Each structure stands twice: as structure tokens, then as C-alpha cells.
Amino acid sequence: MKTTGGTDDQKRRAGERAAELVADGDVVGLGSGSTAAYAIRAIGRATADGLTVRGIPTSFDSRRLARESGIPICSLGEVDGVDVAIDGADRIDADHHLIKGGGAAHAREKVVDAAADRFVVVADPSKTVETLSHPVPVEVLPEAYAAVERDVEDLGGGATLRRGEAKDGPVVTDNGNLVLDCAFGRIDDPRGLARRLSGVPGVVEHGLFVDLADTVYVGTDDGVERLE
Fold first, then answer.
1. Of 1, 142, 148, 227, which has the highest C-beta tally within 10 A?
2. Is residue 89 within 8 Å of residue 217, measured between CB atoms?
3. Residue 35, annotated ligand binder?
4. What is the span of the domain harbouring residue 202?
């Protein structure tokens, strides 16, 4: 359930601005999605010009793009830490809480983004809202999806199994799990909902990223707006 909106130029400005934060010797978390892809390409160009970095991809697609861009890649287990992670978001509220998971990569994204000394979000203006209300992607164990659906209903939400496009059956994550898109309406307490979802048996990870973003770059028609 990828979100749409924003122009390529807006996304490019945000991604390239975030890529300027990467310093020589850094370990960089490489996010997923169309805006993060611009950052990965920009880091790749800097690598070709002599910048020495190592990238930790958060999805199959970001790994493929990193390799195509000439960025040396590694895993979390091979490094002592992550200097900066650059990733997109499906929605960003006024307190910089995020909803992610439109590309079903939010479990790995959260691990890398949370491990980073600095987590930078890149987005276009269509992703910014005052209060979150977008459905929350929840990665679940295949055997548990029906039970998780019932638990989500008990939490006041409605869960829909994400179906694959141009294939029969559901979306399967890089981790071999399923995704439920869970609609709660207006989310006035992201911290509380995040805590409750994390406590549901069978949930691998949910797409609420609470108190994780350090900086948000929003690409506009004529520049980049920095939100702290």
C-alpha cells in the first residue's frame, strides 16, 4: 500500500539534501522508497568521487540500488553502530512521529533507523500532516494474521490483509511475513497505540515510528524545508 503524492523534483531535493550530511567514514542506513532512493543515488555519486562509506540497506530494493550506485554494503552485525540513517515516511505528524511501511519494509527500517546516531527523514509535502490518521502497516507471522486481526479490532481498529499486485495472494515481506494495514482513524496517542500494537502476540513490527526522527527534510518546489 505505497502512498503517492509529491513531485520527483520535491523528492530529489529532500533526498539529495540529506545525502550531504554523510561524512567520510560513515556507516549509513539506506532507507527504502522513492525519496530515499534519491539519497542513495547521491551518496553513490559522492562515493565515486572518493567518499568512503558503508551502507546498510533496509530492503531488497535499497540493497539493489546501493550496489548499482557503487556503495559498499554491510550488515548491522559487521559494524559497531550507524552514524546516520536516511529514510522516507508515508506520513509525518507535527511532533515528527511517523507512519511507515507502504513498501512493507518497516521492520528492517525500524531496526536500522533506531540504531542510528542520527535518523533523518526525507519527504515531499504530501506526507506532512498535523495528526496521524493513515492506516498503520503491521507485519505479522503468517500463522498469526487472523488472531492479530481480532486483536486489532479489540484495539478499536480495522485490519485488512495487504494483497499483492499482479499476483495471486498476499504481499510477503523480505522477512517472509504478511502485512495487515490497520485503520484506527485519527491517532491522538501514537505512543500509546505503538505500545499496544507491540504487545500483540504474532506482531513482528508495526509502522508507527515514535520518537525516532531527529531531522525531517521536506522537499518543496523551490528548495528544502528543515523541520527539527
1. 148
2. no
3. yes
4. 136-206
